[in-house]
Amino acid sequence: MRWPPKARLPALLLAPALALLLLLRLAGPGPGPAPPASPRRPGPTHVLLLSSWRSGSSFVGQLFSQHPDVFYLMEPAWHVWMALPAGSAAQLQMAARDLLRSVFLCDLAVFEAYLAPGPRDQSSLFQWHVSRALCSPPACPLFERGTIVPQEGCMKVCGKTPLHLAEAACRSYSHVALKEVRFLGLRALYPLLADPALDLRVVHLVRDPRAVFRSRELVAPLLLRDSRAVLGPQWDRVPREERPLRVLGAICRSHVRIREEARRLPGPLAARYLLVRYEDLARDPLTHTSRLYDFAGLPFPPQLRVWVQNITRGKGMGRSAFLTDSRNARNVSQAWRWALPHDQVVQIQKVCKDAMELMGYLPVLSEKHQKNLLLDLLSAFKSPSDTLV
């Protein structure tokens, strides 16, 4: 059927809206069995590590980055937020989602719209040097493909690799993994989950809000622009001293929203979502990394087992807040208990009450309770049907 010329433009404009309405109807609650899964096309598996700032996502990102079968990039949506600083998180989520889809398909030319004028090489990409794939062939000959790559060496040698070689590297892997902290809900990502060309798996990483707050305090100036975007128009109306807690409350609500929206996914799509607590990885890294890899369809090579054990069983708290190096992960996960004043902990527990209950974080009832590290503050999920890695 051919459309009359005057009808073509309205039809083209309506088509995406009708497709989205159909998707949301499939994703919402309703009677009857879930629709059948879309046919799987041959191609790479895509993994989105979805988290928030200071939640251990850089560490979990490295679990994917150091895997020899994975092409990994850290926070590509950073470019959207930096290029459009006046936008709120809600206003920027569609542009960020479209960028993610292009990157998952190894179309790195999508970054052109957000990069400053000048040479285009992989050093233009945010935190490019934390990607093992960009430090080994075909992107860069510095390290062999299966080698555990230190970030410092890569930064000095591999930055001038042109983006077309980075694209070639992306296309040479069986898995493409991206880490993101700039989505405050799952709904905007439904089209990616439903796209059979992507075979997308979402790993939703959460961390105890009290630990998140303490970690954010240490790097607060570096998170200022992101914090403004999280609060959006409310930022200027909130007293300065109240902003850190207000931002944390928004982040906690976003984790509840993501979890609830994941529960409304139809059966085949629901199986592509996994909730992971940072504390469980810190306590038993080998077991929970193995389950994480199983979810993504990845093996757990012996050299990675050694690296995971070493990186999580080091001494001290690490050299830098933004460097994934050897540290005592269990101590890091509990540092808030001796670093935060109890009255501040009480405030955090109040604004993040729903998130803590949903994710299995127990409140402390007194300062003595808080300081007693023998008291376990992790519990099981609220719903017995939930699955925890």
How is this fold's topology laid out?
Layout: H1 5-27, E1 45-50, H2 57-65, E2 70-74, H3 78-83, H4 89-104, H5 151-157, H6 163-171, E3 175-180, H7 190-194, E4 200-206, H8 209-218, H9 224-231, H10 243-263, H11 267-270, E5 273-277, H12 278-283, H13 285-296, H14 302-312, H15 329-334, H16 336-339, H17 342-351, H18 353-359, H19 367-371
Parallel strand pairs: 1-3, 1-4, 2-3, 4-5
Helix pairs in contact: 8-10, 9-10, 10-18
The radius of gyration is 21 Å
What's the total count of β strands? 5
What kind of sheet is the major sheet? Answer: 5 strands, parallel
Q: Estimate the global geometry from the Cα principal axes.
A: globular
Strand order within the widest sheet? 2-3-1-4-5
Question: Would you tell me the overall average pLDDT?
Answer: 84
Q: What's the number of structural domains?
A: 1
- Structure annotation, total helices: 19
Label the structural class. alpha/beta
Architecture in CATH? 3-Layer(aba) Sandwich
What portion of residues is helical? Answer: 40-55%
**Share of β-strand residues:** 5-15%
Would you give the CATH topology?
A: Rossmann fold
Q: End-to-end span in angstroms?
A: 51 Å
State the low-pLDDT regions, or none: 1-41, 383-387
CATH class reads Alpha Beta
CATH homologous superfamily descriptor: P-loop containing nucleotide triphosphate hydrolases
Order of secondary-structure elements:
HEHEHHHHEHEHHHHEHHHHHHHH
